[in-house]
Amino acid sequence: MSTTYRLSCDCGNATLTAHGEPEVSLYCHCGSCRALYGTVMLAGTAWRDDKVELPEAEHIIDYKMSDRDMRRFVCKTCGVTVYGRHKPGMPVIPHSLFRKANGGELPAELAPTLHLFYRDRVLDVADDLPKSDGGELMGM
Ligand SMILES: [Zn+2]
Ligand SMILES: [Zn+2]
């Protein structure tokens, strides 16, 4: 069985499709993710390039951070971040897009399995998931 996720930004101009399973669904607390996404942690999924169809270039802004090699792809019309690219290079799609496409709930099969860079956190999280001080759990 293969699942297909049809995702979009808020206004619907930037659309993505993801097939099957992500490589990982996680929370990342590193300073780079916090800066790139403007949140206290990244809640997202990382996908192999051959499993996703990304938005057409005409609908998005490709923003590279000024001081590091991290990119954020944003809808030109509504400003919602539809994916990012950073270590290890795979497209990272925020959980929020899957929630939007699924009546507000994260699909159960996409539940995050770990925390990365927990030592860098600005918010404690009281759950039972494994917490990696750095990137060890992802081999980083
Ligand atoms: Zn939009
Ligand atoms: Zn991170």
Automatic annotation (TrEMBL):
Keywords: Lyase, Metal-binding, Zinc. It comes from the Bacteria. One of its GO terms (molecular function) is carbon-sulfur lyase activity. Residues 5-119 form the CENP-V/GFA domain. InterPro entries: CENP-V/GFA, Mss4-like_sf. Belongs to the Gfa family. This is CENP-V/GFA domain-containing protein. It comes from Kushneria konosiri. The lineage of its organism: Bacteria, Pseudomonadati, Pseudomonadota, Gammaproteobacteria, Oceanospirillales.
